[in-house]
Amino acid sequence: MNSLNTLHNKKKSIFLHYLKINIGKNKNNDINTNLLKITQIKKMSDKEEREIGRIKELESTNLAREEIRDLVIETKKEVEKENEILAERINNEFLKNHIKSFDIVGAIGAGKTALLEKISEAISSKYRTLAICGDITTRVDANRIEQHNVETVQINTGRECALNAYHINQIIKNKDLTNYDVIFIENVGNLICPSEFTLGTDMRIIVVSITEGEWVIEKHPMLFKMSDIAIINKIDLLERLGTNIDKMISDAKKYNPNIEVITTSAKTGENIEKLIKIMGL
């Protein structure tokens, strides 16, 4: 049992490092006062890195054991609950400042950045816009969007495969939100991890492309269930690839009957104006 308790504590530590949220609350139950500041987070030593790697190996080895599985699930639920509370506070801040906000998710290469460039080009003269870009490293996407009269902030997540509410809170608490009408959050390129954490936006938009094949939605249904708009991009390649786009549309509607589905080409600009109308911009 002692070894199990040790694993519990180390596993919980890993989750907290991932989300960077202190689960313990103070007497006022104020989550913001318990968030670890970025400046206080120190780089892990090689020994700590090896220990985390060892715990991850233990997890995959022991996950089939009921006592370990329940422990991991309980800890994960606790972290997700804290994220949801913080995401709700973020959304309240956006609403209070009359900001329209969008979380844009999708696989690497689906065309999220290219679509944001087209949208930004069309709306930046009308709306004061901030784009928060998530990526493992570099600020390539932020630099591209910035060329269209949009303020950008780059978040490099390192080994983390998705943004979470803590990341967004760290940005907006240092911004005067009265300066913005629209906020875009471009999540890390991934069709799996972003389903773990909501970010407090009004709408979630998922982007896939016909180059990913007609089974991409059937194989990754979770984010479609959680999204408001589904974009099927790169339709300029449809004649060459022959992808069954009707199946993709049908699959999206099957998993989420209320989702708005639109086909686009970020390259040619096809249906970009229609997309902007659907977004309410």
The overall number of domains is 2
Query: How does the major sheet shape up?
Result: 7 strands, parallel
Helix content, binned percent: 40-55%
Provide the spatial order of strands within the biggest beta sheet: 3-2-4-1-5-6-7
Features:
alpha/beta; 2 domains; disordered N terminus; single chain; 281 residues; Rossmann fold
Structure description:
The protein is α/β, with parallel strands linked by helices. It has 2 domains: 2-87, no CATH class; 99-278, 3-Layer(aba) Sandwich (Rossmann fold). It is 44% helix and 15% strand. The chain is built from 11 helices and 7 strands. It has helices at 2-19, 46-62, 66-96, 112-123, 140-146, 165-172, 216-219, 222-225, 238-241, 245-255, 272-278; strands spanning 100-106, 129-135, 151-156, 182-186, 203-209, 229-233, 260-263. A 7-stranded parallel sheet has the order 3-2-4-1-5-6-7, sandwiched between helices. Strand 2, helix 5 (140-146) and strand 3 (151-156) form a beta-alpha-beta unit. Helix 1 (2-19) packs parallel to helix 3 and helix 3 runs parallel beside helix 6. The longest helix has 31 residues, at 66-96. Residues 1-5 and 20-42 have low confidence and may be disordered.
